[in-house]
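SAMPLE LOG
Freezer: B-3
Tube label: C17
Construct: single chain, 73 aa
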Amino acid sequence: MPIVDVKTEITGNIWKIEAAPGDVLEEGDTIMVMESMKMEIPVSAPERGTLREVLFPEGATVTEGTVVARLEA
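STRUCTURE (predicted):
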């Protein structure tokens, strides 16, 4: 099964992780919520699959385009 990298669309902090490795996600399901400039922005599954790993903990600061999770599609 192919591995899909889940990337951020913004620079900000990982505020809350909502999915755990092993969870089966549908396209559009929220994996984590980022905070940037007092706004909350969800990072969603780009397609259906099983979450394999979350690469950063809550509170981490990441830049736009960073791979933050991996999904097995």
